[in-house]
Amino acid sequence: MSNNITSDDIDALMKFLGDGTPILTQSRQVEAFEREWSNWLGVKHSVFVNSGASANLLTIAALKHTFGDGEVIVPTLTWVSDISSVLHCAMKPVFVDIDPRTLGMDLEEVLQKITPATKAVFITHILGYNAITEEFVAELGSRGVALIEDVCESHGATMGGRKLGTFGLMSNFSFYYAHHLSTIEGGMVCTDDDDLYETVRMLRSHGMTREAKSSSLKQRYIEGHPDLHPNFIFAFPAWNVRSTEINAVIGRSQLKRLDANNAKRIANLKLFLDNLDSEIYFTDFETEGSCNYAFTLVLKNPDEELRDEIMEELTAAGVEFRRGTSGGGNQLRQPYLKKLLGPDEGPKYPKIDHVHFYGFYIGNYPDLETDKIVTLCRLLNKVGRGRKKT
Ligand SMILES: Cc1ncc(COP(=O)(O)O)c(C=O)c1O
């Protein structure tokens, strides 16, 4: 990522800070950002929090509060917080291998793993690719299983022209620096459901009922607890994961150029995939509606020497990359899950294992020059073709 917080954002911030003595803790700017984000996405409610990981945590906590204990179907390729949120809420994660074309969950396998204990499918739209289908959403609906969308890596991606993050019961976004929109740190929980919205608002602020919008909900707590002062009624053993006015001002400024930036990212990915040698690299990604902030580079065939050579060449050329793609690859190979489930779980998922060992991502940002993308592809093709001949 480069230049993600621009002079326009800093100007907006300076203007805000220079206007008297503004309130800096969560207040009107946060509310305005939530309203504007809801309009941009096409949902009824948004709750701004201090990170995407916090958005994941509040979402699963609200899910558990609403539907009770049970299983949550999760991807093997995702960020740690998608799994840790389930573990911290004492629910059971059930893992699913990936679909190599979307890098999201294998949807057939998801349906096979649904049991009477399943409370939700917590999908991640990986690196801008849509991980769901209309049929899948309808099937979950008919089985009465909630869909939760993690869109932390895919702001602006669509299915059938409608934005991802509007299909699930709740959806999550991250505004960390590397992502499509940055508030320095930040995240959003989005939903059309009024009750979940109130729960997430309370969870965000220590579980306090005065954070709810609904006066009847607040009144119920006040009447149910006459021994408590209305200012301090803690309905949940929750956390403080609020953000600040400063982050919201940056978010509002960034939102103005999100669509234009996304159009450039989409064109960049197309150029990248069009120029890669499809005999060496997997290029058959499902790009319809995608909106990517990092190029996905996956070797077509397992080849450790080629992989290591690519890493050497990219490092020598000053190209930053991450191996394993999103979140470091197969989560089941990470120590926190090995400790819980044993060392033999990871290898049971061969499709994510391929990406784990032979996949990378490389930053894709709006100002990335066309020449640099073409030069990068030439370099990658040259390394791959050189290796094929040996
Ligand atoms: C899919 C996914 N979920 C959640 C997160 C956590 O977001 P944050 O870094 O803002 O906590 C990330 C982070 O990049 C992510 O990629």
How are helices and strands ordered from N to C?
HHEHEHEHEHEEEEEHHHEHEHHEH
Radius of gyration: 22 Å
Q: How is the biggest beta sheet arranged?
A: 7 strands, mixed
* Sheet with most strands: strand arrangement: 1-9-8-5-4-2-3
Q: Which ligands accompany this protein?
A: pyridoxal-5'-phosphate
- Helix content bin: 40-55%
Count of discrete alpha- or pi-helical segments spanning 4 or more residues: 13
Characterization of this structure:
With 390 residues, this protein is an alpha/beta fold. The protein has helices at residues 7-17, 28-41, 52-67, 80-88, 107-113, 134-143, 194-204, 215-224, 245-275, 304-316, 335-341, 350-358, 370-389; strands spanning 45-49, 71-75, 92-96, 118-124, 146-150, 158-159, 162-163, 170-174, 187-191, 294-298, 321-323, 359-363. It contains 13 helices and twelve strands. Strand 4, helix 6 and strand 5 (146-150) form a beta-alpha-beta unit. It is globular, with a radius of gyration of 22 Å. The two termini are 35 Å apart. The mean pLDDT is 97. Residues 51-53, 56, 78-79, 81-82, 124, 150, 152-153, 174, 176, 187, 326 line the site of pyridoxal-5'-phosphate. Pyridoxal-5'-phosphate binds next to helix 3 and helix 4.
